[in-house]
Amino acid sequence: MKTRCTACGHVFADREPLTRARACPSCGAGGTLRPHVVWFGEMPLGMDQIYAALESVDLFVALGTSGTVWPAAGFVQEAKAAGAWTVELTLEPGEVSAMFDERHYGPATEILPDWIGRLEAG
Ligand SMILES: [Zn+2]
Questions:
Q1: How far is the CA of 19 from the centre of ligand 1 (A)?
Q2: Global pTM?
């Protein structure tokens, strides 16, 4: 529901179809608007913020990921290096499963409530 201008970086709420004819409402450039999402193969937005957060987390949970898409697949290693307890909650073991301190496999609708219940029970 957001659009980003590749020329100036302006992000705005938008529900209109993206066409090359539309101009950026901030800089006026044409043909530079795209969905404000991360496509497969692109670097996630806010990597500086992500790595800063990974340096200070106590608990890192990966939910529903195969651990095959980088750089996200490396986040567990960063969190672990910072001293975080790392938990994998996913359908089946992935490529970086050995990095996790705690692993639970199955449908998220089952393993997530179970894990949260154990967490709340202390
Ligand atoms: Zn722009």
A1: 14
A2: 0.75
**Sheet holding 102-105: strands in order across?**
59-63, 85-90, 102-105
Residue 69 C-alpha to ligand 1 middle, in angstroms?
A: 29
Encoded tokens for 14: 């938008």
Ligand 1 centre from 20 Cα, in Å? 13
Under the phi-then-psi rule, with left for phi > 0, alpha for psi from -120 to 50, and beta for the rest, what region is 65? beta
Calculate how far, in angstroms, residue 48's C-alpha sits from the geometric centre of ligand 1.
23
Domains annotated on the chain, with CATH: 1-37 (no CATH), 47-121 (3.40.50.1220)
Per-residue pLDDT of the chain (122 residues; tens, 9 = 90+): 999 999 999 999 999 999 999 999 999 999 999 999 999 888 888 999 999 999 999 999 999 888 888 888 899 999 999 999 999 999 999 889 999 999 999 999 999 999 999 989 98
